[in-house]
Specification:
mainly alpha, three-stranded antiparallel β-sheet, three-stranded mixed β-sheet, 12 strands, RNA-binding
RNA sequence: GGCCCGUUGGUCAAGCGGUUAAGACGAUAGCCUCUCACGCUGUAAACAUGGGUUCGAUUCCCGUACGGGUCACCA
């Protein structure tokens, strides 16, 4: 942990939509790492101001994901903290108070325009925005409307002229002409704030020093900065992250979404990816550590390594192949016990009774990129596949179909008589037979493996597969092969 | 369409005026080996484009092209 860096306070502020998008997770990760790299604070805040989009149990999904990935937070829902509550719907009164304060300050105003009028406006000019109809209502009119109980929203009074500039820690200086900005709604008619307002108030009240979020907010940030200025609050640091992209079947690249396959953390886990591998991989999407070519990092190592100047500006394409590589590295690094705990249940689901699952799991350890691959790679063990093409001919071992058949015929009684059915014994048995016949061991193994697996490429060799299949099934398969 | 941002191999990316332009995934060749995998050793593959600035641009500036983002009582 660097002592010379000022502690920062970051937050992860998801809205409860029901699942954790991988892009959101990465945002959470970076916010988390940034705070931990400086010994600062990490807050979780639920942004549930859109009452129509609430999804039951969504908060649990978010919290659970943070737990599984190891992103511990200092303040947030359930754990609480000095600046709570950490769920925006429970802070309604706060936003109203600040919105009214902003009106008093002259930087916001009541708007009584109906939704119909707004819709009309939008129809007339799709990109025109609000026409500031209520911006200059007299105090009397506002009072009268309020007294009459007319529904209203509160809008931000954006300066008509000038330019607003802020400095992003990743993208540098961003300037926006004030006339390009809309008098956006701060407080909705239902009394709830919009994101545009709530997050500013909360970030200020909660002492957030670094706002970490996706770069889709790059162009709306000037409006938020104006809000800070209007209140007389010190502006936070902004850290906008490059977007995560996906690649279509036809090669087109666009913002990562469901059409690109599994994009939620839970989907990936269900497919057999390890949380550590997912975290490690997404850490590299848009960020690169300095002074090292290593890529495999634990969360603890990432906490040490992370820094803003390693964050990239350009969008990053999510690559399943590379994720698979990370996952295979993590699987290989798994000690036997936890590995078995993951692999065995998967095998249990798809294996026939005769299959030696432990032996099979061991064979798979160095061959698996993803636990979801198990059923497919293990198919030949559970099914007697039809013999397709000439699998018996192998140039290196100089095998031929006829030769293999002969070998099988001679090997069958030996195997039937075998007492020990473990890899070493089986290997010795076949090797002895090969020597006696003046054959290469490989030639014998080839014949047996093909007969038993009926597949050109197999995880493990002949004797290993025999152990997996068990004596009975092995013998049956060889008999079948001879008869064919 | 306006505004904002971006552009190094297929993908992730290092580079921060002078380099043989790293590394990783993937691809591919070979070694190892009871096939495969693991491991090891190689190979191919990139600075979007046109102008400047400079003794010298991948690197700095401007234009162009392409890509993306954003213009909601969603976040």
């Amino acid at each position: 942990m660097s002592e010379n860096k000022a502690p920062v306070c970051t937050r992860f502020a998801p809205s409860p939509t029901g699942y954790m998008h991988i892009g959101n997770l990465r945002t959470a990760l970076y916010a988390y790492l940034l705070s931990r790299a400086t010994g600062g604070k990490f807050i979780v805040r639920i942004e549930d101001t859109d009452r129509e989009r609430l999804v039951d149990g969504a908060v649990d999904v978010i919290l659970k994901t943070l737990e599984v990935t190891g992103l511990d937070y200092d303040e947030g829902p359930i754990v609480g903290g000095p600046n709570g509550p950490y769920v925006q719907s429970e802070r309604k009164a706060i936003y109203k108070e600040y919105a009214e304060k902003l009106v008093a300050l002259g930087h916001a105003y009541y708007c009584f325009c109906s939704e119909e009028r707004l819709a009309q406006l939008h129809e007339e000019n799709e990109n025109g925005g609000y026409d500031r109809h209520c911006r200059n209502l007299s105090e009397e009119e506002v009072k009268a409307n309020l007294a009459a109980g007319l529904p209203y929203v509160i809008r931000q009074k954006i300066p008509l002229e000038g330019t607003t500039t802020y400095t992003d820690e990743v993208f540098g200086e961003i300037s926006m002409e004030n006339k390009e900005m809309q008098d956006q709604i701060l407080l909705k008619a239902d009394g709830y704030p919009t994101y545009n307002f709530a997050h500013v108030v909360d970030d200020y009240l909660m002492g957030v020093t670094h706002v970490v979020r996706g770069s889709e907010y790059l162009t709306s940030t000037p409006k938020y900065v104006l809000l800070y200025d209007a209140f007389g609050w010190e502006r936070p640091h902004y850290v906008h992250l490059p977007l995560l992209m996906g690649k279509d079947a036809d090669g087109k690249i666009s913002k990562l979404s469901k059409r690109h396959g599994a994009v939620s953390f839970q989907d990936l886990v269900n497919q057999g990816f390890l949380p550590e591998a997912i975290v490690n991989y997404i850490a590299h999407l848009g960020w690169c550590p300095k002074n090292t070519n290593e890529e495999i990092f634990s969360l603890a190592e990432l906490r040490e390594l992370f820094s803003i100047d390693g964050i990239n500006k350009s969008p990053a394409v999510f690559d399943y192949e590379k994720l698979r590589w990370f996952n295979s590295e993590y699987i290989k690094a798994l000690p036997d016990e936890p590995y078995m705990a993951k692999a065995l249940p998967e095998l249990e689901k798809c294996c026939k009774p005769y299959v030696n699952r432990e032996a099979l799991a061991v064979l798979l350890h160095s061959r698996l990129a993803c636990f979801g691959d198990i059923e497919e790679t293990v198919k030949f063990v559970n099914e007697r596949l039809p013999m397709e093409g000439d699998l018996y001919t192998n140039k290196k071992n100089k095998t031929t179909p006829e030769g293999c058949k002969e070998v099988l015929g001679e090997v069958l009684p030996i195997l039937e008589k075998a007492e020990a059915w473990d890899n070493d014994s089986l290997f010795e048995l076949l090797k002895a037979y090969a020597e006696e016949k003046g054959l290469k061991a490989g030639a014998v193994m080839w014949a047996v493996r093909v007969a038993v697996a009926r597949q050109a490429v197999t995880p493990g060799g002949a004797t290993e597969l025999m152990v997996v299949l068990g004596k009975e099934e092995t013998v049956e398969r060889i008999k079948l092969a001879i008869a064919e």
